[in-house]
Amino acid sequence: MYLAQPFYNVLLMAFFEWGVALHDVDLEAVRAGEKSWSEVMDDLHGIAGKARAQIVNDYGGWPLISAGAFGLTQLAFRGRLGQPKSSRIGDLLRTLRPTGRLSTVADVLDRIIPGVERTFWTTLMADATANVIRNVWAHGIIFCGHFPDQTYTFSQEEVERETRGGWYVHQLVGAANIEGSPLFHIISGNLGYQVEHHLYPDMPSSRYAQIAPRVREICERYELPYNSGGLVHQWSTVHRTILRLALPGGEPRPKPGPYRGELDPHGTTGPSEAARVRQRVPVGSAAAGPEHDTGGVDVSPPPRRARLALRPLTGFVTGQLCDIRRFSGRNPTSDPQGDPEKVFDLRAATPPDGFWFEDDGA
Description:
Blueprint: H1 5-14, H2 16-25, H3 27-31, H4 37-76, H5 88-96, H6 101-112, H7 114-146, H8 156-159, H9 164-173, E1 177-179, H10 182-187, H11 194-199, H12 208-221, E2 228-230, H13 231-246, H14 273-280, E3 308-310, E4 317-318, E5 326-328, E6 343-345, E7 357-359
Helix pairs in contact: 1-2, 2-4, 4-7, 5-6, 7-13, 12-14
């Protein structure tokens, strides 16, 4: 099965939109008993509806419109537009019945619709070609943002109880950027900034270029990798990874070292903000980035500070991460009618009555 992955990937490139649709059906969840077949049939029914609409538009509607436009233009110019000498339908009728009425109909069609037929089939083939090109482009952009051989992958078990800081690190090292001009980023929907997209999925994509330098500075300061490269480079490493892992004994390539600033061709000259921070902040300071003796990268986040929670006698209320000083909540036992937005001060030595502080384990 793994040996077929490179061939399957070529098919996926050409028909990427349909591959995404079938992936969303999630047959793995069906095999695991987490999804019923009735839900699968609902998904397939929705996919079939969208597929029918696209097929009718691309391979029926638009070819008919263009063919009709040619026919009207031919009438307006009184047949002076160039067109083939015979009709495909006419040739088929002559094959079925060389003489008689069908042959007469074929002769009429030869004078009327050869150009209409050619326009119909040309538009149909153009639509099919455009769909394949779009699928190959979308496949390349998506795969280059997720599967170059220097990105990290994580199992469900590894991220099951990740901290908030761990989540950010996982998003950072599990994605890759594609370098290009402003026009390239426009036609790729700004998904060349896949790292920033993973870190801030709700941010408008037009802002990714503005925050990318700040993300790179953080990576340089804390000696984290920042995977970035040109389209051809990233695309080639994607397929190199697919080929390597499809063959027996294939293993992932070594992962990249810390980001050092050399991958910013559009950045400003001079030392980066991260370098300036290291110059003015002592190494031993709590504000300094972690120091590593080796060239490798520790992708685990620094030890987290306790994330405090107020656990009432009933229910569970969680505070915010690290910098919280005050907490809103209500004691349902001693203050059942109290203000639900009542503020408790977490700086106090003891919690309010009916509550206690604890690490929520997140």
